[in-house]
Design goal:
With about 425 residues, the protein is of the alpha+beta class. It has one domain: Cytochrome p450. The protein has helices at about 15-20, 25-30, 55-60, 70-75, 80-90, 105-115, 120-125, 125-140, 150-155, 155-165, 170-185, 190-220, 225-230, 240-255, 255-270, 275-280, 285-300, 330, 370-385; strands at about 35-40, 45-50, 65, 145, 305-310, 310-315, 315-320, 325-330, 385-390, 415-420. Strands 1-2-8-5-3 form a five-stranded mixed sheet. It has a three-stranded antiparallel sheet with strand order 4-10-9. Strands 6-7 form a two-stranded antiparallel sheet. A hairpin with an 8-residue loop joins strand 1 and strand 2 (about 45-50). Helix 8 (about 125-140) runs antiparallel to helix 10 (about 155-165), helix 11 (about 170-185) crosses helix 12 (about 190-220) and helix 17 packs across helix 19 (about 370-385). The model has no long low-confidence stretch (mean pLDDT about 90).
Protein backbone atom coordinates (compact mmCIF):
# COMPACT_ATOMS: atom_id res chain seq x y z
CA UNK A 1 0.00 0.00 0.00
CA UNK A 2 1.38 3.42 -0.95
CA UNK A 3 2.08 5.90 1.80
CA UNK A 4 0.01 9.05 1.77
CA UNK A 5 2.08 11.92 0.38
CA UNK A 6 2.13 14.89 2.75
CA UNK A 7 2.12 18.47 1.47
CA UNK A 8 5.46 20.24 1.70
CA UNK A 9 4.34 22.57 4.49
CA UNK A 10 3.70 19.56 6.76
CA UNK A 11 7.39 18.59 6.75
CA UNK A 12 9.85 19.83 9.35
CA UNK A 13 13.40 19.44 8.04
CA UNK A 14 14.76 19.11 11.60
CA UNK A 15 12.30 16.34 12.53
CA UNK A 16 14.38 13.21 13.30
CA UNK A 17 12.03 11.19 11.08
CA UNK A 18 12.74 13.50 8.14
CA UNK A 19 16.49 13.38 8.79
CA UNK A 20 16.22 9.57 8.85
CA UNK A 21 14.39 9.37 5.51
CA UNK A 22 14.40 12.75 3.75
CA UNK A 23 13.83 11.77 0.13
CA UNK A 24 10.07 12.36 -0.16
CA UNK A 25 10.64 15.77 1.39
CA UNK A 26 13.52 16.53 -0.99
CA UNK A 27 11.41 15.60 -4.01
CA UNK A 28 8.68 18.04 -3.03
CA UNK A 29 11.21 20.72 -2.09
CA UNK A 30 13.02 20.49 -5.45
CA UNK A 31 9.70 20.77 -7.27
CA UNK A 32 7.94 23.42 -5.19
CA UNK A 33 10.51 25.37 -3.14
CA UNK A 34 14.13 24.57 -4.11
CA UNK A 35 15.21 27.57 -2.03
CA UNK A 36 13.22 27.22 1.20
CA UNK A 37 13.37 29.27 4.39
CA UNK A 38 13.56 27.14 7.54
CA UNK A 39 13.18 27.98 11.24
CA UNK A 40 16.46 29.64 12.21
CA UNK A 41 18.76 28.03 14.80
CA UNK A 42 19.73 31.42 16.26
CA UNK A 43 17.85 34.69 16.88
CA UNK A 44 18.09 37.31 14.12
CA UNK A 45 19.57 34.79 11.65
CA UNK A 46 17.64 33.52 8.64
CA UNK A 47 18.22 29.98 7.40
CA UNK A 48 17.60 28.67 3.88
CA UNK A 49 17.71 25.13 2.48
CA UNK A 50 18.77 24.60 -1.17
CA UNK A 51 17.91 21.24 -2.70
CA UNK A 52 18.29 21.44 -6.50
CA UNK A 53 21.52 20.46 -8.27
CA UNK A 54 21.89 23.56 -10.46
CA UNK A 55 21.26 25.91 -7.53
CA UNK A 56 23.71 24.07 -5.28
CA UNK A 57 26.31 24.42 -8.04
CA UNK A 58 25.62 28.16 -8.29
CA UNK A 59 26.28 28.56 -4.58
CA UNK A 60 29.48 26.49 -4.61
CA UNK A 61 30.90 28.60 -7.44
CA UNK A 62 29.90 31.98 -5.99
CA UNK A 63 32.37 32.15 -3.08
CA UNK A 64 32.16 35.95 -2.88
CA UNK A 65 28.48 35.86 -1.87
CA UNK A 66 28.29 32.43 -0.21
CA UNK A 67 31.16 32.22 2.29
CA UNK A 68 32.49 29.01 3.81
CA UNK A 69 33.44 30.76 7.05
CA UNK A 70 30.87 29.01 9.24
CA UNK A 71 33.32 28.24 12.04
CA UNK A 72 30.96 29.66 14.68
CA UNK A 73 28.62 26.76 13.92
CA UNK A 74 31.38 24.21 14.39
CA UNK A 75 32.14 25.75 17.79
CA UNK A 76 28.87 24.23 18.98
CA UNK A 77 27.56 25.88 22.15
CA UNK A 78 30.93 27.14 23.37
CA UNK A 79 30.02 30.81 23.12
CA UNK A 80 27.16 30.37 25.61
CA UNK A 81 28.80 27.90 28.00
CA UNK A 82 31.56 28.81 30.48
CA UNK A 83 32.34 25.14 31.16
CA UNK A 84 33.03 24.51 27.47
CA UNK A 85 35.18 27.64 27.26
CA UNK A 86 37.22 26.39 30.23
CA UNK A 87 37.84 23.01 28.54
CA UNK A 88 38.72 24.44 25.13
CA UNK A 89 41.11 26.94 26.74
CA UNK A 90 43.33 23.96 27.62
CA UNK A 91 44.01 23.39 23.92
CA UNK A 92 44.59 25.47 20.81
CA UNK A 93 42.05 27.80 19.14
CA UNK A 94 39.96 26.61 16.22
CA UNK A 95 41.12 28.48 13.10
CA UNK A 96 39.88 28.62 9.53
CA UNK A 97 41.99 26.50 7.18
CA UNK A 98 40.40 24.24 4.56
CA UNK A 99 36.70 23.67 5.23
CA UNK A 100 35.90 27.11 6.69
CA UNK A 101 38.32 29.40 4.84
CA UNK A 102 37.56 31.67 1.89
CA UNK A 103 39.93 32.97 -0.78
CA UNK A 104 42.64 34.12 -0.68
CA UNK A 105 43.46 32.37 2.65
CA UNK A 106 41.97 29.08 1.45
CA UNK A 107 44.30 28.97 -1.56
CA UNK A 108 47.36 29.05 0.69
CA UNK A 109 46.15 26.23 2.90
CA UNK A 110 45.02 24.15 -0.06
CA UNK A 111 48.38 24.54 -1.81
CA UNK A 112 50.23 23.42 1.32
CA UNK A 113 47.97 20.42 1.92
CA UNK A 114 48.16 19.41 -1.75
CA UNK A 115 51.89 18.96 -1.21
CA UNK A 116 51.08 16.22 1.30
CA UNK A 117 48.19 14.53 -0.56
CA UNK A 118 49.72 13.73 -3.94
CA UNK A 119 48.71 11.10 -6.48
CA UNK A 120 52.07 9.39 -6.06
CA UNK A 121 51.51 9.05 -2.29
CA UNK A 122 48.02 7.59 -2.80
CA UNK A 123 49.19 5.18 -5.52
CA UNK A 124 52.13 4.11 -3.39
CA UNK A 125 49.86 2.75 -0.65
CA UNK A 126 47.60 0.65 -2.91
CA UNK A 127 49.31 -2.57 -1.79
CA UNK A 128 48.92 -1.49 1.84
CA UNK A 129 45.19 -0.88 1.37
CA UNK A 130 44.75 -4.29 -0.28
CA UNK A 131 46.56 -5.93 2.63
CA UNK A 132 44.38 -4.17 5.23
CA UNK A 133 41.20 -5.07 3.29
CA UNK A 134 42.15 -8.76 3.14
CA UNK A 135 43.16 -8.86 6.80
CA UNK A 136 39.81 -7.41 7.82
CA UNK A 137 37.91 -9.87 5.64
CA UNK A 138 40.01 -12.73 7.06
CA UNK A 139 38.79 -11.69 10.50
CA UNK A 140 35.15 -12.53 9.81
CA UNK A 141 34.87 -14.59 6.62
CA UNK A 142 34.84 -18.00 8.33
CA UNK A 143 31.90 -16.97 10.51
CA UNK A 144 29.55 -16.50 7.54
CA UNK A 145 28.21 -13.31 9.12
CA UNK A 146 29.35 -10.02 10.65
CA UNK A 147 28.31 -6.58 11.71
CA UNK A 148 29.78 -4.91 8.64
CA UNK A 149 30.48 -1.45 10.05
CA UNK A 150 32.46 -2.48 13.13
CA UNK A 151 34.13 -5.40 11.33
CA UNK A 152 35.10 -3.63 8.10
CA UNK A 153 33.70 -0.22 7.14
CA UNK A 154 34.95 1.56 10.27
CA UNK A 155 38.43 0.05 10.81
CA UNK A 156 39.49 0.22 7.13
CA UNK A 157 39.64 4.01 6.73
CA UNK A 158 40.97 4.47 10.28
CA UNK A 159 43.85 2.10 9.54
CA UNK A 160 44.57 3.79 6.21
CA UNK A 161 44.52 7.36 7.54
CA UNK A 162 46.64 6.31 10.52
CA UNK A 163 49.22 4.94 8.10
CA UNK A 164 49.09 8.12 6.02
CA UNK A 165 49.50 10.34 9.06
CA UNK A 166 52.29 8.15 10.40
CA UNK A 167 50.78 7.32 13.79
CA UNK A 168 50.66 3.91 15.53
CA UNK A 169 47.88 1.47 14.63
CA UNK A 170 47.41 0.67 18.32
CA UNK A 171 46.08 4.21 18.82
CA UNK A 172 43.18 3.60 16.41
CA UNK A 173 40.51 3.41 19.16
CA UNK A 174 41.50 6.95 20.18
CA UNK A 175 41.24 8.20 16.59
CA UNK A 176 37.77 6.69 16.22
CA UNK A 177 36.58 8.23 19.50
CA UNK A 178 37.97 11.65 18.59
CA UNK A 179 36.54 11.48 15.09
CA UNK A 180 33.10 10.59 16.48
CA UNK A 181 33.29 13.62 18.77
CA UNK A 182 34.09 15.97 15.89
CA UNK A 183 31.07 14.59 14.04
CA UNK A 184 28.79 15.03 17.05
CA UNK A 185 29.85 18.68 17.31
CA UNK A 186 28.77 19.22 13.70
CA UNK A 187 25.41 17.52 14.15
CA UNK A 188 23.68 20.49 15.84
CA UNK A 189 21.50 17.85 17.56
CA UNK A 190 23.48 17.17 20.75
CA UNK A 191 22.99 17.71 24.49
CA UNK A 192 25.21 19.75 26.81
CA UNK A 193 26.65 16.54 28.24
CA UNK A 194 27.65 15.44 24.75
CA UNK A 195 29.18 18.87 24.08
CA UNK A 196 31.33 18.59 27.23
CA UNK A 197 32.55 15.11 26.31
CA UNK A 198 33.28 16.30 22.77
CA UNK A 199 35.25 19.27 24.09
CA UNK A 200 37.41 16.96 26.21
CA UNK A 201 38.05 14.76 23.18
CA UNK A 202 38.98 17.74 20.99
CA UNK A 203 41.57 18.88 23.52
CA UNK A 204 42.91 15.32 23.94
CA UNK A 205 43.25 15.06 20.15
CA UNK A 206 45.11 18.37 20.04
CA UNK A 207 47.64 17.42 22.71
CA UNK A 208 48.24 14.00 21.13
CA UNK A 209 48.95 15.46 17.69
CA UNK A 210 50.90 18.39 19.13
CA UNK A 211 53.36 15.82 20.44
CA UNK A 212 53.47 14.01 17.07
CA UNK A 213 54.08 17.32 15.26
CA UNK A 214 56.96 18.23 17.55
CA UNK A 215 58.48 14.78 16.99
CA UNK A 216 58.32 15.31 13.20
CA UNK A 217 59.93 18.73 13.48
CA UNK A 218 62.97 17.05 15.07
CA UNK A 219 62.91 13.86 12.99
CA UNK A 220 60.83 13.96 9.76
CA UNK A 221 59.47 10.72 8.31
CA UNK A 222 57.70 9.69 5.11
CA UNK A 223 54.18 10.63 6.23
CA UNK A 224 51.58 13.37 5.91
CA UNK A 225 52.38 15.00 9.28
CA UNK A 226 56.03 15.46 8.24
CA UNK A 227 54.95 16.83 4.86
CA UNK A 228 52.61 19.34 6.49
CA UNK A 229 55.21 20.42 9.06
CA UNK A 230 57.76 21.06 6.31
CA UNK A 231 55.39 22.40 3.64
CA UNK A 232 56.10 25.90 2.35
CA UNK A 233 55.27 27.75 -0.82
CA UNK A 234 57.10 30.71 -2.27
CA UNK A 235 56.78 33.80 -0.12
CA UNK A 236 54.59 32.10 2.52
CA UNK A 237 55.25 31.09 6.11
CA UNK A 238 54.90 27.51 7.28
CA UNK A 239 51.75 26.37 9.08
CA UNK A 240 51.56 27.24 12.78
CA UNK A 241 50.45 24.77 15.46
CA UNK A 242 46.77 25.80 15.51
CA UNK A 243 46.60 25.55 11.70
CA UNK A 244 48.33 22.17 11.65
CA UNK A 245 45.97 20.80 14.29
CA UNK A 246 42.90 22.10 12.46
CA UNK A 247 44.00 20.52 9.18
CA UNK A 248 44.79 17.19 10.86
CA UNK A 249 41.40 17.29 12.55
CA UNK A 250 39.69 17.71 9.18
CA UNK A 251 41.79 14.98 7.56
CA UNK A 252 40.97 12.59 10.39
CA UNK A 253 37.21 13.10 9.96
CA UNK A 254 37.21 13.30 6.16
CA UNK A 255 39.48 10.27 5.91
CA UNK A 256 37.38 8.23 8.28
CA UNK A 257 33.69 8.83 8.88
CA UNK A 258 32.64 9.64 5.31
CA UNK A 259 34.33 6.55 3.86
CA UNK A 260 32.82 4.35 6.59
CA UNK A 261 29.37 5.67 5.76
CA UNK A 262 29.83 5.27 2.01
CA UNK A 263 31.13 1.70 2.36
CA UNK A 264 28.23 0.64 4.58
CA UNK A 265 25.58 2.46 2.57
CA UNK A 266 26.97 1.00 -0.63
CA UNK A 267 26.87 -2.53 0.74
CA UNK A 268 23.21 -2.05 1.65
CA UNK A 269 22.47 -0.75 -1.86
CA UNK A 270 24.10 -3.84 -3.38
CA UNK A 271 22.12 -6.15 -1.10
CA UNK A 272 18.91 -4.35 -2.05
CA UNK A 273 19.83 -4.64 -5.76
CA UNK A 274 21.15 -8.21 -6.05
CA UNK A 275 21.11 -8.27 -9.85
CA UNK A 276 23.52 -5.33 -9.89
CA UNK A 277 25.71 -6.99 -7.28
CA UNK A 278 25.90 -10.06 -9.51
CA UNK A 279 26.72 -7.90 -12.53
CA UNK A 280 29.74 -6.30 -10.86
CA UNK A 281 30.86 -9.66 -9.46
CA UNK A 282 30.78 -11.03 -13.00
CA UNK A 283 32.60 -7.99 -14.41
CA UNK A 284 34.89 -6.39 -11.76
CA UNK A 285 35.84 -3.59 -14.17
CA UNK A 286 32.46 -2.08 -13.31
CA UNK A 287 33.64 -1.35 -9.75
CA UNK A 288 34.91 2.15 -10.57
CA UNK A 289 31.49 3.31 -11.79
CA UNK A 290 29.85 1.39 -8.95
CA UNK A 291 31.81 3.54 -6.49
CA UNK A 292 30.65 6.75 -8.19
CA UNK A 293 27.02 5.62 -8.13
CA UNK A 294 27.28 4.67 -4.46
CA UNK A 295 28.73 8.10 -3.67
CA UNK A 296 25.87 9.72 -5.59
CA UNK A 297 23.17 7.71 -3.88
CA UNK A 298 24.61 7.73 -0.37
CA UNK A 299 26.23 11.22 -0.24
CA UNK A 300 27.95 10.62 3.13
CA UNK A 301 28.34 14.39 3.48
CA UNK A 302 24.63 15.10 3.22
CA UNK A 303 24.94 18.88 3.35
CA UNK A 304 27.17 21.81 4.15
CA UNK A 305 26.78 25.34 5.45
CA UNK A 306 27.39 28.66 3.73
CA UNK A 307 27.13 32.20 5.15
CA UNK A 308 25.64 34.91 2.92
CA UNK A 309 27.92 37.96 2.66
CA UNK A 310 25.56 40.37 0.88
CA UNK A 311 21.89 40.67 0.02
CA UNK A 312 21.19 38.36 -2.90
CA UNK A 313 18.51 36.43 -4.73
CA UNK A 314 18.40 32.79 -5.69
CA UNK A 315 15.60 31.33 -7.80
CA UNK A 316 13.58 34.49 -7.08
CA UNK A 317 13.96 34.18 -3.30
CA UNK A 318 15.50 37.13 -1.47
CA UNK A 319 18.28 36.09 0.91
CA UNK A 320 19.60 38.86 3.17
CA UNK A 321 23.22 39.28 4.19
CA UNK A 322 24.06 37.32 7.33
CA UNK A 323 21.76 34.42 6.48
CA UNK A 324 22.83 30.80 6.70
CA UNK A 325 22.36 28.50 3.73
CA UNK A 326 22.39 24.72 3.94
CA UNK A 327 23.26 23.18 0.56
CA UNK A 328 21.91 19.60 0.44
CA UNK A 329 24.23 17.39 -1.55
CA UNK A 330 22.08 14.31 -0.90
CA UNK A 331 19.12 16.02 -2.56
CA UNK A 332 21.11 17.50 -5.45
CA UNK A 333 22.62 14.08 -6.15
CA UNK A 334 19.14 12.65 -6.76
CA UNK A 335 17.82 15.58 -8.79
CA UNK A 336 16.16 14.06 -11.89
CA UNK A 337 17.04 17.16 -13.91
CA UNK A 338 20.70 16.12 -13.59
CA UNK A 339 20.34 12.38 -12.96
CA UNK A 340 17.37 10.82 -14.80
CA UNK A 341 15.55 8.34 -12.57
CA UNK A 342 17.82 9.68 -9.84
CA UNK A 343 16.07 7.91 -6.96
CA UNK A 344 17.14 4.53 -8.32
CA UNK A 345 20.52 2.83 -8.09
CA UNK A 346 22.06 2.14 -11.50
CA UNK A 347 25.46 0.51 -11.95
CA UNK A 348 25.57 1.69 -15.58
CA UNK A 349 24.68 5.36 -14.98
CA UNK A 350 26.77 7.34 -17.47
CA UNK A 351 27.08 10.57 -15.47
CA UNK A 352 27.40 9.05 -12.00
CA UNK A 353 30.73 10.82 -11.45
CA UNK A 354 28.98 14.21 -11.73
CA UNK A 355 27.81 13.77 -8.14
CA UNK A 356 28.61 16.33 -5.45
CA UNK A 357 29.58 13.85 -2.72
CA UNK A 358 33.04 15.47 -2.56
CA UNK A 359 31.72 19.00 -3.00
CA UNK A 360 32.76 21.10 -5.97
CA UNK A 361 34.98 24.01 -6.85
CA UNK A 362 37.66 25.31 -4.50
CA UNK A 363 36.41 23.18 -1.59
CA UNK A 364 36.44 19.91 -3.52
CA UNK A 365 37.57 17.25 -1.02
CA UNK A 366 41.35 17.05 -0.81
CA UNK A 367 41.10 13.36 0.07
CA UNK A 368 38.78 12.36 -2.81
CA UNK A 369 41.49 10.42 -4.61
CA UNK A 370 42.29 8.39 -1.49
CA UNK A 371 38.59 7.79 -0.73
CA UNK A 372 37.93 6.49 -4.24
CA UNK A 373 40.99 4.22 -4.07
CA UNK A 374 39.90 2.73 -0.73
CA UNK A 375 36.35 2.12 -1.92
CA UNK A 376 37.42 0.59 -5.24
CA UNK A 377 39.81 -1.84 -3.56
CA UNK A 378 37.32 -2.65 -0.80
CA UNK A 379 34.45 -3.54 -3.13
CA UNK A 380 36.66 -5.52 -5.52
CA UNK A 381 37.94 -7.70 -2.67
CA UNK A 382 34.60 -7.96 -0.84
CA UNK A 383 32.66 -8.93 -3.97
CA UNK A 384 35.34 -11.43 -4.98
CA UNK A 385 35.59 -13.14 -1.59
CA UNK A 386 31.98 -12.94 -0.34
CA UNK A 387 29.12 -14.55 -2.25
CA UNK A 388 25.36 -14.34 -1.78
CA UNK A 389 25.68 -11.35 0.55
CA UNK A 390 22.40 -10.68 2.33
CA UNK A 391 20.91 -9.00 5.38
CA UNK A 392 21.00 -11.05 8.57
CA UNK A 393 17.35 -11.84 9.42
CA UNK A 394 15.89 -10.04 12.42
CA UNK A 395 19.00 -7.99 13.26
CA UNK A 396 18.68 -4.79 11.20
CA UNK A 397 16.52 -1.73 11.64
CA UNK A 398 18.63 0.15 9.02
CA UNK A 399 18.52 3.37 11.02
CA UNK A 400 21.02 6.19 10.51
CA UNK A 401 23.00 8.34 12.91
CA UNK A 402 21.03 11.54 13.80
CA UNK A 403 23.11 14.21 12.07
CA UNK A 404 22.12 16.92 9.61
CA UNK A 405 25.61 17.20 8.07
CA UNK A 406 26.77 13.59 7.72
CA UNK A 407 24.67 10.54 6.90
CA UNK A 408 25.58 7.00 7.89
CA UNK A 409 24.02 3.75 9.06
CA UNK A 410 24.31 2.86 12.74
CA UNK A 411 24.74 -0.88 12.09
CA UNK A 412 24.58 -3.34 9.22
CA UNK A 413 24.39 -7.06 9.99
CA UNK A 414 25.08 -9.27 6.97
CA UNK A 415 25.37 -12.94 6.12
CA UNK A 416 27.30 -14.45 3.19
CA UNK A 417 28.96 -17.50 1.74
CA UNK A 418 32.70 -17.00 2.02
CA UNK A 419 35.74 -17.98 0.03
CA UNK A 420 38.78 -17.90 2.33
CA UNK A 421 40.90 -16.33 -0.45
Amino acid sequence: MNKEVKPLEDYNFFDPQVIECPYSFYKLAREQAPVMELPAPMPDVKLFLVTRYDLVMQILHNVEVFSSNFSTLLAGKEAQDAKLQEIYAQGWPQVNTLLTADPPEHERFRALVNKAFTASRVNKIQDDIEQVVDELIDGFIDQGECEFISSFASPLPIKVIATQLGVPQEDMPKFKKWSDSFIIRMSQMNSQEQEIECAKDVVAFQHYFHNRIEERRKQPQDDVISDLVQAKIAGERALNMAELLNILQQLLVAGNETITNALAGGMLLLIQNPEQMQAVQAEPAKVDNLVEEILRMESPTAGMWRVVQQDTQLEGVSIPAGSLVMVRFDSANRDPMKFPDGENFSLCRQNASSHLAFGHGIHFCVGAMLARKEMQIAYKRLLRRLQHIRLAPGKNDLKHQPNIVLRGLKQLYIEFNGDSQ
